[in-house]
């Protein structure tokens, strides 16, 4: 028996309806290609990787995570954190592929493979294989046991039941609800020695990806979950709903509501970024044209708008330039006050210069706070 999908109330239905409107708006905006699409997708993917790993205590700057997503070596993250980031990014990349493949079925071996992609470098933890014994989740501050997973002998059967449900169960439920229940059941089965929470969040993203309405970068809630106050609520609601041991009879409504709120608020943030992307790109394009610079330079400036660092290799790859062309562009932008260079040789990067800081500050002043969809009036 798995944790069961709950009935939704009128407030939940209203939140789902509003989220659906935002999703349709996003899909409409994404239907037409734009110059900034690739950079925005990379930034959103990096935010998801950063969020999911920060929950587990693997902290890295957004700029370092973007370097990992771009296939570069991060400048500040430790070797250990870098390995975690690379592993999780590899799993998310595979999920993006699975999201659009025509012939697909959920299998236990697929879930084990995702776990191996994430933590394969932890060879002592038998990555990608069911745990051989019991598992306890403890409060890091007090040492108190807050959850004990089901006996190891039950794990294969529970995984088979979960896979059957993923393929056949509650197919009439909204995808946000099914994704939330997939997450809850996998994390409570706790089938592996490590990587269970990350694997459960990845499965939630996979269920969303298979829905096909939006790509994972635009539908994942992992960034939202990684915000510190949301992470606290995330663990609290998982504990309240799941109990201290495998208890599939418990009411799961508060967990699903937590996820519906997360989807709504993350969608608001993504829509805001899409609108900002169009506005800031147009403003930068006008300024760059007025200064007589090549239009490709807007790409470099947009990168330091969505994050705080640009490396020559990234700009060179984005605009398909030679090393010399990329270096000359970035030096000219720095000379004119658009960028500020830091470091030397392989460690060199460009941050926003005075002119770019003014534009960033202007957009930050105009940015509206996100709205909690369950708070009316």
From TrEMBL:
<keyword id="KW-0067">ATP-binding</keyword>
<feature type="domain" description="Fido">
    <location>
        <begin position="106"/>
        <end position="261"/>
    </location>
</feature>
<feature type="binding site">
    <location>
        <begin position="194"/>
        <end position="201"/>
    </location>
    <ligand>
        <name>ATP</name>
    </ligand>
</feature>
<feature type="active site">
    <location>
        <position position="190"/>
    </location>
</feature>
<protein>
    <submittedName>
        <fullName>Fic family protein</fullName>
    </submittedName>
</protein>
<dbReference type="InterPro" id="IPR040198">
    <property type="entry name" value="Fido_containing"/>
</dbReference>
<dbReference type="GO" id="GO:0005524">
    <property type="term" value="F:ATP binding"/>
</dbReference>
<keyword id="KW-0547">Nucleotide-binding</keyword>
<feature type="site" description="Important for autoinhibition of adenylyltransferase activity">
    <location>
        <position position="56"/>
    </location>
</feature>
<dbReference type="InterPro" id="IPR036597">
    <property type="entry name" value="Fido-like_dom_sf"/>
</dbReference>
<dbReference type="InterPro" id="IPR003812">
    <property type="entry name" value="Fido"/>
</dbReference>
<dbReference type="Pfam" id="PF02661">
    <property type="entry name" value="Fic"/>
</dbReference>
């Amino acid at each position: 028996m798995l944790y069961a999908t709950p009935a939704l109330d009128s407030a939940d239905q209203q939140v789902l309806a509003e989220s659906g409107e935002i999703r349709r708006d996003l899909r409409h905006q994404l239907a037409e290609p734009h110059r900034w699409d690739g950079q925005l997708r990379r930034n959103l993917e990096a935010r998801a990787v950063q969020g999911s790993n920060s929950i587990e205590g693997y902290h890295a700057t957004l700029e370092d995570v973007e370097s990992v997503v771009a296939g570069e070596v991060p400048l500040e993250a430790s070797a250990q954190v870098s390995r975690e980031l690379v592993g999780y990014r590899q799993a998310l990349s595979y999920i993006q592929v699975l999201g659009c493949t025509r012939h697909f079925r959920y299998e236990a071996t697929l879930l084990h493979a995702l776990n191996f992609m994430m933590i394969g470098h932890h060879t002592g933890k038998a990555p990608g294989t069911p745990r051989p014994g019991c598992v306890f989740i403890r409060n890091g501050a007090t040492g108190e046991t807050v959850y004990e997973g089901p006996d190891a002998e039950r794990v294969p059967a529970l995984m088979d039941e979960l896979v059957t449900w993923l393929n056949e169960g509650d197919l009439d439920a909204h995808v946000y609800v099914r994704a939330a229940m997939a997450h809850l059941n996998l994390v409570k089965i706790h089938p592996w020695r490590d990587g269970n929470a990350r694997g459960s969040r990845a499965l939630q993203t996979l269920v969303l990806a298979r829905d096909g309405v939006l790509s994972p970068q635009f539908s994942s809630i992992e960034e939202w979950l990684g915000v510190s106050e949301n992470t606290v609520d995330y663990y609290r609601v998982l504990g309240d709903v799941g109990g201290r041991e495998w208890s599939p009879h418990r009411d799961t409504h508060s967990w699903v509501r937590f996820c519906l709120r997360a989807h709504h608020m993350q969608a608001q943030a993504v829509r805001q970024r899409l609108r900002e992307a169009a506005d800031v790109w147009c403003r930068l394009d006008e300024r760059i044209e007025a200064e007589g610079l090549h239009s490709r330079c807007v790409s470099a400036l947009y990168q330091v708008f969505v994050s705080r660092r640009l490396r020559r290799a990234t700009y060179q790859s984005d605009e398909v330039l030679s090393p010399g062309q990329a270096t000359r562009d970035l030096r000219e932008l720095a000379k004119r006050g658009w960028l500020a260079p830091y470091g030397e040789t392989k460690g060199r990067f460009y941050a926003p210069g005075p002119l770019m800081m003014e534009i960033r500050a202007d957009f930050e002043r105009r940015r509206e706070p996100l709205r909690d969809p369950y708070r009316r009036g």
